[in-house]
Amino acid sequence: MNDTPVPRSLAQRIAIILAVFVQIGATFLPQLGFGDPIGQRSDSVRTLVTPSGWAFSIWGLLFLGSVMYAVWQALPAQKYNSLVNRIGWASVVALAAQGAWAAYTQVANLTVISVIIILTSLCALLLILRELVAVKRPFTAGERWIAGLTFSALAAWLTAASIVNVAATLVYYGVGGGFSHPFIAAIIVLIGGIIAALAVWRSRGNPWYALVFCWALLAIYFRGGQESWAIAGATVLSALAVIYAVLAKLSDRADRHHWLGGGNAP
Questions:
Q1: Is residue 174 a part of any domain in this protein?
Q2: CA 115/CA 161 separation, integer angstroms
Q3: In terms of pTM, does the model score above 0.90?
Q4: In terms of residue numbers, what domain contains 200?
């Protein structure tokens, strides 16, 4: 990995700030008279995969992390940060796409277009995650606790949100995934769990990704899991797969230090 200092462009630093503005600002469109709140849209196509409402409180922390990242990356000290330079444009896509998803969903609904938008954001987040995993040197404090934590959490939540969006879209088009098709919904959860477990394994046991994804699974369990044993079983199996992946990988000292500090990454 080439960490030769190269100055980051002013365009990238400004674009990241604007992307966070779009990410957060789009959620206020209903208050300005444009569209309906996301929660209302979600309830209109509620499925067995839709998490309990309390789970969405995590967005407050995710938005806080995004704001901290936007401010931190714009500081003069990060002008030559090679890691931020590599993830910068991907973060613009990821954050702006989240705003685009919120805007579209509030004006339209959880349609196939919303699936495309949310998967675009998720793909960008997974590219960022790959860069975070590939770093050979120890992270700086800002890289670990601002960039690493924020984007790992966002990647996990968007993985879960993509599952929910796909299930809701199936209901929107009358295809399946709703209350009358619990096994289809359970299969969607299991596929998401397998993807998440693989993501944790391939990302050296990323604990923040695992924690946030399990938070989403817990919220699905306490809602859809109370109405269908298939959903309950799918969430438990998915959680066990993710927990196994994180514990197995973090048992390695180098992987543990990569994410949590306390030693030199190889």
A1: yes
A2: 10
A3: yes
A4: 10-260
